[in-house]
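Encode chain A's predicted structure.
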Amino acid sequence: MKSQRSKLRRLAFSKITVLSLTALLVAAIGISVANDLYAFVKPEGEIVLSLDEPHSLKELSKTLEEQGVIANPTVFRLWVQSKGKTELLEGFCGTLTLNSAMSYRQILLCFSQ
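Encoded structure for chain A:
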């Protein structure tokens, strides 16, 4: 009888541990995405982006990540697609001055001006 209780306790403890660790992981990812999306805590820095020819949204997202404007290019792409602004970004040629502390909305506004 004691060994069965002991097994049940270990099983319950292991399930609680797995659920807790999963919740922490999901929360950390959520905080990271929200920070990048809304620019809660991002370092200030001016970036000049110059594009001589149109780029795909995937290429542009990667460039923005490399320049330090965004941290999550996949999330940025999905966000732009959800707003229906893919063509706006893919058709852009020219020079923009961006700030690394900008939210996705602010970045999109720069491309639309």
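The chain has a mean pLDDT of 95.
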